[in-house]
Design a protein that fits this description.
The complex is a heterotrimer of chains A (798), B (166) and C (294). With 166 residues, chain B is an alpha+beta fold. Chain B has 5 helices and 6 strands, in the order E-E-H-E-E-E-E-H-H-H-H. The chains are: A alpha+beta (798), B alpha+beta (166), C alpha+beta (294).
Amino acid sequence: MRDKKYRFLSQPRRVVEDRRFVAGKGHYIADYDHADMAHVALMPCHLPAARIDAIDASAALAMPGVIDVVTGAELAAAIDPLMNGLDTPKVRRYPLAVGQVRYAGEWVCAVIAESRAIAEDAIEHIRLETTALPFVLDPEQALRDDSPPVHPDHNSNLLLDKKFVWGPVDDDFAAADHQLDFCVTWGRNSTVPIETFGVVAEWNAWAQMLDIRASVQMPKYADQIARALGLAGNQVRVHYDIDVGGSYGVKRGIKHAVLTGYLALKLHRPVRLIEDRLENMRAGDAHGPERKFDVSVAFDKDGTVRSMKMRALDNAGAYAGRAPFQLGKPIGAIVGPYRIGSVAYQAISVTTNKAAQEAVRGFGQAPTNYALETAMDRVAAFLDMDRLALRQHNLIKADEFPYLIPSGSTYDSGDYHTVIDKVMAAADYPRLVATCNQLRKDGMMAGIGIAACLEPSGGNASFEPLLNESNQTTTWMESCQINIDALGAVTARIHTTSSGQGHETLVSTVIGEILGIDPDSIRVVRPNSLESLPGNSPVGSRMAIMLGGAAARAAEKLKAKILAIAAHHLQCDAANIDYQGGAMLSANGRHITWGDIIELAHRQIHGLPDGMDPGLASFDIMQVPTGGDLPKDGKVHMYPCYSFEFHLVLVTFDPIIGKPEIRSYTIGHDCGTVINPAIVSGMTYGGIAHGIGAALLEEFAYDESGQLMTQSFLDYLMPSSHEVPDIQLVKHCTPSPHTVFGQKGSGESGYLGAPAAISSAINHAVAGLNISFDKLPIRMSVISDKIAAATQHRSDSE
Amino acid sequence: MNITIDINGKDVTAAIEPRVTLLDFVRDVAGLKGTHAGCEHGVCGACTVLLDGEAVRSCLILAAQAEGSQITTIEAVDGTTRQPGELSIIQDAFCESHGLQCGYCTPGMVLAAKTLLQHNPTPSREQVRDAISGNICRCTGYVQIIDAIMLAAERLQGRNQPADGA
Amino acid sequence: MKSASFDYIRPDTLDAVCACLASHPDARIIAGGQSLVPMLAMRLARPSLVIDIAHIDGLSAIRDDDSAVVIGAMVRQAKALSDLLVATHLPLLAKALTHVGHPPTRARGTVGGSLVHADPSAEIPLVAVTLGASLRMRDAGEDVEFHAEEFFIGPMLTMTPPTACLFEISFAKPTCAYVGTGFHEVAARRSDYALAAAAAHIEADDAGVVQDLRLAIGGISDFPQRLPIDIHIDLSAGMADLGTSLTTAIDAALDDVDIVEDMHASASYRRRVAAELARRAVDDALREIAQDLS
């Protein structure tokens, strides 16, 4: 068995973090109390676009318990705009609306009071005078010359328009037997964690230190806060020991932290902003991509897909932070798992009068995978070819790795055909087909959905310079420190918050594996940003690779030192030492114990090799494997590792009711070497659940007047345990050549293919009616209405 | 108004505004932070507590309404019989199956499981699904949560005990 | 999301409730609070006074009143769901209650609260309309009674007088030898408010001839409504083949319903699905009777 190569890694082990969580002893931001705490509530403006004429807070300020009311104008005079990933200096973003409101629900002022309830009471006494302005919601309309400008200074609503041509696209289209075009739309959904975003800021004027505690998952958070507030980097201390109640990419919280930090500096009190659900849904900067794809594919009679043209138009909402880069990540896997020889890609990001978009699980990859898989289904339908056979025909073969794709990334490893074979066997495909046919015979609609896709992982930042030449970021490092104390216990430090990924378990398992000691005896702590080495937080499906990698490398350094001490003591070559956790044996039968090593390192420098420093500590700052190059000719290598997933689902619904029921769900998943099996399977199941939501239920939907219709959990519908079926998970392991154990990323698994698979199944079910569903989420009412119209049409024409 | 609520077997008395919910009373007055605010409008289940033994949403109950009832929170899920650091069988099963990730919905899930297993010691997977359908989890897709509750049911019946008694 | 301030009172008599309502025209009664508390939290309801009726004697009982089952206004949905009288005499209500919210909301939510809240998609009002329940209220020292069919007049809008308090609901027991019921609803998720719902209660005599067919729909219009169905059905020889008569009758009845639409479902969807659910509910009810007869 491959697994047995490891003592702890890949073995079923409990997740360290779980103990405190099942006891209700997690340490979340809302649990952080302070006797002198001031509370913030945010006043929204409910117009989608408006000029702010006046804000009269005098009545609110006169209320008992109200401490202050801060407007956007006050903030703009005191702080710098928030960081902007693109080269769009006139698209300024502040924590509160400055001069103009750009989406319904945008925060126009912050009320600070002795309690959250008083702050909410006070909002009702603030008089906001506005003049309504014209607004735009649709991204295509926003591109037109006559569209209302969301940011008048910026001169247009265009944030980004990049055209890439990778390979001989025109030639391939001309030479191909066929071409087909289609349009699909990915609805605006998000991960919507059950914990809203929260932050507490405390300014210590004596120490000149701003302490930030937040439920955050944001790279370079302390830097961004310091920059906006005009503080030195070492005047901002972000505490990483806060447990985050779910994030999946979205808890960026930069505007919240800058606002709260400003208030703490101004008021000399600890200030707490915990979004309520309405603040979170309307204006928490927490919506995900909303993307329209126009796709053309060129293919031959035998099913070979030669080339693809894709125009991706993303509705970034009212402001641009990092969100437009979500059009960039998919460039690293623009052909999915297929041998498509050339690609033309146009990435367009526009501002509209909707809430600002932020990073969401997969950073734009899930929508692109949905478009790619739709293309595969359409080609198969066009050629009257089996959808699976078409995919198998086009998939990259196991012996073709490393595989260079047209846009410049090289896929590390994979065995897609084998994963698919395993899934077909596990799901008993012939029986699945028989069940599908029987359901149809019984008058139900039924369809089988297929999706094959990649999870680029290891989070590099090379899409930044690719989309913005003035941005030359080429590293996205991560680090880990290890110390073995004088009693021989191991403590590791990691430099990030965690939102359920089990980083403590990851790191203790890796270090335990390398040092040969029980991971449960290793303590992993998350200090603050000032006590930390550089890191980039758990984004881009990178922590198994990067944090696991840094921990392994730091542990190897420590092990080398331990071996050197032992070799010195035993007077033998370090290479000849049989290393075991707890004791070392040399070839000649002499040994030295773990305790002896500790004693030597901590107390007896006279017993150490000449020139060796005392103590047993190490650290590692790891660069992304395969990363570091700037783009050339519109191409760049992006991610070190590419995990593969294959979804096979059976969906059925009554033609009148139209409510899809997932009758069978099997996923094949290959993320290389698995460090903790329960964590990886849990994330995959969770990703699928999130994908089911994106496919069928979840949408931040706006009405024609620009109002968000899904402001609460009564309308923003997330899958409950009823909507998520039992899922059969088929595991496969193709190690990555680029990582210490062969591990790849898995934090986005499931979500990347589930929406495509469910859409595929529903479209398969209705294929006989000559209708299709081209927009996610596919609502039951739309399914039923379209079937009714098609059936009506059919009976009319008979 | 002055109110007294029996929380985990102890009377907690405070002068509060009538608008204070049981959720806020538990967290801010009793200082028990294991009960979480998720949506504050009764949909997500993160704020689940037991009221006279039944799982309820503490954000949908005014603290004043709870006077005279016995409230049990995650901190006393197994009564007072266990030492700090000692897990109940249900909690242990959640750890064994990794029926959680971020932990935010977990106290509510554990309490929903406790209510279910009190009424139905041998539930089917579908019955477990039903019992937790009012508790939204965004991390797990519920699969390993259902595994955990099924395992807890077995262990409460004396079957499938942990090998080393851990 | 904190409520606006309000006062709270816990009277122990119905007349005291009425007096509070009279002195505070914007007061709201709280029963289980499962609908009111979120409205308070979102400040969609902002009463100056909240009147808790949980401490009034007698409102939490279900009693057998010869020809009727009488449910106190404070009876929790979970209690009604597990009640023997309800199971025996009001099978439709028992069926519908399993669709109401989740176990944790049913543990607190009350039968009376759901009726007075009058959400157009709620199950209990639909059952009350189907069964022709009577809602008994105390108002200014007197008892007044409303028939469910006249009680609901709009979304969250009822005939409840400004100073009245519901204290019990009377559901007539079936009078015929055979009873069949059907309840169907469709929601985006199983426990959500219905996009469409249908309830049927059918009684047949000793010979298997249907004497009373009551069908109502919910979730598709401003309030639950009866669909008048007038067809002769004889189940003496087993399940009747109604041909198209039932669907035609349902369709005709739905023509008189003003159907709403929202982001979750179009009006055409609601109508189509309501017709289908109505047919299924009647079908279920008839099959139950046919089975009992055989």
